[in-house]
Amino acid sequence: MNPRRAALLAAVLLAGSCRPRKSAPGPAYAPPPGKRAFSLSIDAAQTRFLKAGDCVQVVLLMAVTRPDGSGDARSEVLAPAAEVLRVDRGWARDAGLVQLALTPEEAQYAALAADREDRLLLDALPAPPAPRPLPEPRAPALKAGRVGVAVLVYGDQQEFLTPGDRVDVIATRESPRAEEKSGLTALTLFQGVTVLGAAPPEGDSEWAAVQLMLTPEQARVLGRSVSAEDNLSLPVRAPGDEATRAVEPATMRRRFGTGAEHSAPKT
User: Model's pTM, two decimal places?
Assistant: First the structure.
């Protein structure tokens, strides 16, 4: 089972038990300007030896088909150097939660890999950069001319969010003409929107709720995305980072070629 989905299921099962769903918070750092804090549930071995402040290479494992029709696997570097901003090793049974500093493009590919159920490896690198302290969050207020829109997201996208965070909104969606996972695309809908509220899953639900402050036009765009059943990822921006730029939509074929159409085996 995909670590992300396994973690979500385990978190739901633990919600009604004597063990609290959320573990004690550890150190947390802010991403550098120009990067995003992307949260990712991953198999427990990948977070077992990590701590906030480390640096890792993010490696993507994918299945490929040989000319003779037999299967094989190959690895590609998704992010050559990503700072570890937070780690929760006990987030769920057999899965941890890690927050990585990624470029906007890398964040799109990480969202794509999560939805494709690809396997990711976090290889430790030497000489991690000096971490930046995480500032105290400021309570947000809904501004005139804006609306507060609530959406459902996977629990790993809500766990580290705090009202007042500013996030990009990445949607992953399937092309109507695609077969299986080959047509998944990740695209950045908005950049730098404010989180008004964040609530964990309740009862036996696997979904968390996040309320975003949007313009009416952004709300219409997000409504179409929700109606299309896109999955949403919410990477957090660096404090004070107001810069925006065009981010080309991501497909595995575009970056890694036709051999990247299929997800990796879970072995």
Answer: 0.86
